[in-house]
Amino acid sequence: MPATKKTHNDSNAMMDAFNDGFSVFGNLFSATQAYWAGMSRYSTDFFIPYLLASEIFNRVEGVRLLEDPPEDSVGAYLKLLQNNLELMDRSMKGTADMMTAYAELEMGGLTDALQQSCFELKYEKLAQYTKRQVELLEMVTYRYPETINAIEPEFGFHFERGEHVLLDETDRFLLYRVAPSLKQVKTRADAKPVLIIPPFVLGANILGFLPGEQRSYAHCYANQGFPTYIRVLKDIDSAPALQVMTPEEDTLDTRRFCEAIMKEHGKPVTLNGYCQGGYTALCNLLSGRLDGLVDAFITCVSPMDGTRSKGLAYFLSQLPPQFNNLSYGTKILPNGNQVADGKLMGWVYKLKSIDHEIPAAAFSRDLSMFARQKDGEYTISKTAAALNYWLQNERYDLPLEITRMSFASYNVPITEDGTLPVQLFGQKLNLKRLKEKKIPWLICYGIGDDLVEKETALAPLDFIDAEVTPFPKGHVAIATSWSSPDSACALHKRFGDGNYRGPVLFHMDMDAALNKAADEAAPKSRPATTAPVKTNVRTAAQTPVKQSRPAPKTPPRKNPGESAAKGKKVPTGAKNPVKLANAAATKTAPQKSGKPKAGSPVSEPPKEGK
Length: 610
Fold this sequence. Notes:
By secondary structure, this protein is an alpha/beta fold.
């Protein structure tokens, strides 16, 4: 009987080992399929822009090679080869680093499985280990993309739904008033309005990230009751006027929108630019065309002097001068107009960071993200899904003349007297004009931003004073992580050891100063600040593509500031509320201006995650 029982147990053990071994082979087959499917998708996302770049390169070189001396072309190609070899070296090193990091996470389980297989002739742990690899690979290859695509209804503004009022439009832009995402909040008609200028390439939706999750830069203002406006590009493929837009037209459209906003609310506008939108907004201001309409300025992670960039500027400097040309990023539309290819420009940023953007490295990085989670409990946060949706889908072509502005800022430094490397209306643009006009400026930057580094964003401090607010994390953290009202660096509060002001609080303080100035000038004429907005402007869903803005039912409150903006004289004895607002803001909220002294590092706000 004991012998029979032992034989039975041995038989079961052999059967279990056989089943486990069969599972191992099945898992290896499934893992291989998932791996190659995932690598194929990651490679496609990376190399499609490469094919576009190759097509444009061949087109431009077909002309240039016939015009330039052969010896110049040979030298340029040799230097380009050297640059490509450096990129290949960085990509291989980055891939090795990412794969090693993933292997270190999984090495413990593999070691235990191999020991059991070799010394005990059992394959249970090896079957479990290979099953885990299948789950991780299928998570990255299949479930992760599905979750990213599913976040689309929650991501961004979705102006087509008609929730946001369309106040005005030109042949190039649409002007929307952002509705609060909190239903109990009512927009205050007489509160100080803010006009947000989003980046051209990255689009406006990153500033309306996840409104339902209270993670949206624009809604941070709207949920405080402020009239919050955002300037949105029309579809460039169907808007010829946008395709050929000049910086001067950009400025005049901004002026028109500021006039419409000020007429609607009776107060000057806070101009707020994010990323590239901050640089174009600065140029608009320095042109003088917004005088009397804008009395406060905010920029977030905006490249003010790209030549100080350690990443992108270095990458551009490594290119032969012949190839550091906008022609290699320009595509020709069916109507013959030329625009800058947004996808190709986004790919340039990937090349700059190729050590962790090359497909094999990116795939291993995402595997590591899920490998740190518990088995069977793999989750994808809405924030991660929305960020990836934005990275994969939000890249837009932009007018060539606007691209030249940014291109100049990354190749020509600001002069010693504070003059920008671009002109508007045939005039030089000097930073010191903001000081002359007494326009307060808040500069926000990301401590971990590797796209617009601190030195690039804070370049104006060499020429004028401005308030500075540093935020932890990278380029879009202000619009994602810190736009949550419960975050450590909430935009409507002060935070950090430096008691820094968030951009929404900066705007709130300016509004309070204007109210105080208006009370002192005419204390009985100002209506209650809780009055909701009353307007007969139709929503985007109800509005034809082109129409003039209908007049509001009730005229906006007239005050000395509004009269001055319209070119009328301020009544004798009345105080100018704009000047009083600037003075009051300076007294009530002292600014952190200038750069820190050598040897005295700036204290940074608390960090929250990576």
